[in-house]
Amino acid sequence: MQTACIEFARYACDLKDADSTEFNVETPYPIIFKLRDLGGCDQLGGTMRLGAWPCRLSEASLAREIYANSEEISERHRHRYEFNPAYRETLECGGLVFSGVSPDEKFIEIVELSRDEHPWFLACQFHPEFKSKPLAPHPLFSSFVQAAFQNRLQTETSSSRSKSRKLTRLERVAAASEN
Questions:
Q1: Which residue intervals of the chain are DSSP H helices?
Q2: Distance (Å, rounded) from C-alpha 64 to C-alpha 67?
Q3: DSSP string computed for 77-96
Q4: Is-contact 122 140, C-beta < 8 A?
Q5: Strand 49-57's sheet: what is its strand order?
Q6: CA 26, CA 66: separation in Å to the nearest integer?
Q7: 3-state class (DSSP) for residue 131
Q8: How far is CA 137 from the centre of its chain?
Q9: Is residue 77 within 8 Å of 127, Cβ to Cβ?
Q10: Is-contact 32 21, C-beta < 8 A?
Q11: I want to staple 121 with a disulfide (CB 3.0 to 4.6 A). Which of 89, 113, 134, 139 is the partner?
């Protein structure tokens, strides 16, 4: 989620030097910053967000659909950098959807693009792999694989339709002249 937000800030919101303070302490647009900057904690040991944390999901979001229309979920974290809320409005105006936030709205947990922009684009701050098993995959993984499979089917179907269409004489001549 962190690098997705940085890239979105750079290319959709024209914040060319946007970055994380983990990568560039001098960035003029610290989209991602250390937890202590958000929580006012100066001790290094207190700058890591660990364990399960609640997350509220926005209505009509891809995230909410993936989690079977749940209003709130709980996911596990292990990180010390967070999204900088000072840039939320800027990225929202650019089109990024903040679809998962902590109940106190202090932490951004999930971002996504509208399905008008992309059929399946979602990024999360937490670690879904911590709650996934080979025979019981996390819902985010299942949903992503299903979306990729549907895209592949759609691509193959449209490709086979275009191949089965008979070429006009003009199209055959043009294709032959290219070779």
A1: 2-11, 35-39, 62-66, 88-94, 139-164, 169-178
A2: 5
A3: EEESEEE-GGGHHHHHHHTE
A4: yes
A5: 72-79, 49-57, 96-101, 108-113, 122-124
A6: 38
A7: helix
A8: 18
A9: yes
A10: yes
A11: 113
- CA distances to 62, 66, 78, 123, 131 from 141, rounded to whole Å, are 13, 10, 19, 11, 11
Cβ–Cβ under 8 Å, residues 31 and 84: yes
> pTM, whole model, 2 decimals?
0.83
Match 């990568």 to its residue by tokens: 23
Tokens of 51: 């364990």
* Amino acid identity at 89: E
Q: How far apart are CA 131 and CA 97, in angstroms?
A: 24
Q: How far is CA 39 from CA 50, 57, 80, 126, 136, in A?
A: 14, 22, 11, 18, 35
Token pair 């989690």 is at which residue? 67
Kindly state the tokens that stand for 6: 């940085």
In angstroms, the CA 125 to CA 128 distance is 9
Residue-wise pLDDT for 20-54, tens only, equals 999 999 999 999 999 865 555 555 456 789 999 99
